[in-house]
Write a structure and sequence with these properties.
Blueprint: H1 11-18, H2 27-49, H3 60-72, H4 75-107, H5 109-122, H6 131-138, H7 142-166, H8 170-178, H9 183-220, H10 226-235, H11 239-267
Amino acid sequence: MTFEAPTVPDRTRASATTGPRRNRWPRLTRIGLSVLSVLLGVLIWDLVSRNYTAFFLPSPRLTLDGAVELVRDGTLWDSVSASSTRILTGWLLGVLVGVPMGLLMGCIPWLRLMLDPYIQFFRFVPPIAFVTLAIIWLGPGEASKVALIFYTTVFIVALNTLAGVLSVNEIRMRAARALGAGPVRSLVSVVLPSTVPHVVTGARLAMGNSFLTIVSAEIVAAQSGLGSLIWTARNYAKTEWVFVGIIALGLLGYLFDWILRLVTGRTLRRYGVNF
């Protein structure tokens, strides 16, 4: 007679197979709940607006009429186009500079020690503090706005990239060196793949901060853009235009972040990027 040991569930293998618990609701259900949430928000907005004047809190209908008016005369499209161009240009330049900066700081200790005081100082100085200097140095044109977006992006991306480099498992680095990998090979095969999720997170955070910066820059010195639209609406006491500008900013930011998550999620999934 033979005896078999009792079977013990392999929880490690099961968890590795199933992965983290995720929301498994049907796609249509999730979309339906999101739409329902938006409709409820608009309904509450409409009910509250009935207790106030249009100058203090315009209704959804009045805001929609304002949006139609701005679309017909081309103001809204020109504003969205101008702000989008500035944000994307400055953000892209900031990512292109911030990623190599973070990698170098993470791989070269003496460089990290030299740059750390500047990183820690400037990341606490908001971009709005440099608006006047940007206009004096670069003029009131596009360069000053792009420079401010670059400023708000580069430090966030660099710090997140640095955090990714410093979080690389030392055992993996030793294994790579034991197999004959040099510094460049270790950087390409070990450090970069491990750092990709941190880079993407930094890029997303920087994108959000870029929207905060562009409004301030366009309010101070710009003839076009959503920030300029909001400020002009204030001067003409058109509160519904202010709401249109705010809603446009939110929708534009949602769209940019969705595109970024979609592209990185499909192209960088093998590096652990999964939104």
